[in-house]
Amino acid sequence: MSEQKQTRAGFVALIGEPNAGKSTLTNAMVGAKVSIVTHKVQTTRARIRGVAMQGDSQLVLVDTPGLFRPRRNLDRAMVKAAWSGAADADIVVLLIEAHRGKTDGVDAILAALKERNVEGQKVALAINKIDRIPRDRLLALTAEMSKEFDFAQIFMVSAEKGYGVDDLKAWLAGRVPEGPWMYPEDQIADLPLRMIAAEITREKLTLRLHQELPYQLTVETESWEERKDGSVRIDQIIYVMRDGHKGIALGPKGETIKAVSMAAREELTEFLGRKVHLFLQIKVRPNWLDEAERFTEMGLDIKDGG
């Protein structure tokens, strides 16, 4: 009998301030787009799990919402989700931006990590966007962070350009616990396809609308119909908070919603590897931010925001 190979599997939580690059790093390590990436902060609302393979190791990446000072119910639920994801993980990776350095927000996260002090949990530091500052400043920041916390390892990366990502991934693969894989080898995320589709559309809306209303809308996949020709029909609802927001999302002569629909359909076609028929509707729901079913759709718990 041939000897069975020893596999490893574990949860890796990526934490940090909003826009630190957690979603980009998740996608880079998975090798596919499983997490929404925009230039807007606070776009990751649920703990999106990407599944990355490295040799005989399976890394389940928990891309948490950015940690910030919460004001609304949704904010509080997002921050609770982030810390819950960190507490449940085998390894935590704190991501900071090289050019911003040790900010007040980073100090607050470090203080919380020291206070939580989960027994046996390794915490690594990844300094992201290293291409934005000179080497001497990078070394000084590394020394400064080393004094603040006893990190298991420090990595210098550019998640966007791929620098240092393989080194971080290899280190994580060697340190997750021995055990069977939690997901099939070809699975890249544990989110339902309906939610991934909604996230893709929400990303396109966020990019298109810029400052106008990115945090006051959400997208839900209402129906998913598999067709006999192998294509799929996806019906989605965009919920906005006011009538005026509906006009912004539609755009002049419906141009904005048409452009969003086209961009989302193209990405969904590439992601699913088959033809997609995408139909979008916009509905006004003034209190969607406080409705339990909206939180559930985003993988959050409304009780965490109360």
Q: CATH class of the largest domain, anyone?
A: Alpha Beta
Please tally the β strands and state the result. Answer: 9
Please tell me the total number of domains: 2
Q: Largest beta sheet, briefly? A: 6 strands, mixed
Q: Which strand order does the major sheet show? A: 2-3-1-4-5-6
CATH fold-level label of the largest domain: Rossmann fold
Order of helices and strands: EHEEHEHEHEHHEEHHEH
Query: How much is the radius of gyration in Å?
Result: 20 Å
Shape: globular
The CATH superfamily of the largest domain appears as: P-loop containing nucleotide triphosphate hydrolases
**How much β-strand is present in the residues?**
15-25%
Poorly predicted tracts of residues: 36-46, 300-306
Report how far apart the termini are. 57 Å
Residue share in helix:
25-40%
CATH architecture of the largest domain: 3-Layer(aba) Sandwich
Q: Quick check: average pLDDT?
A: 78
| Count of runs of 4 or more consecutive helical residues | 9
Secondary-structure-derived class = alpha/beta
Explain what this protein looks like in three dimensions.
By secondary structure, the protein is α/β, with parallel strands linked by helices. It folds into two domains: 8-173, Rossmann fold (3-Layer(aba) Sandwich), CATH 3.40.50.300; 193-305, K homology (KH) domain (GMP Synthetase, Chain A, domain 3, 2-Layer Sandwich), CATH 3.30.300.20. The chain is 36% helix and 22% strand. The strands form two sheets. The chain has a six-stranded mixed sheet with strand order 2-3-1-4-5-6, with helices on both faces. The longest helix has 18 residues, at 255-272. The radius of gyration is 20 Å and the shape is globular.
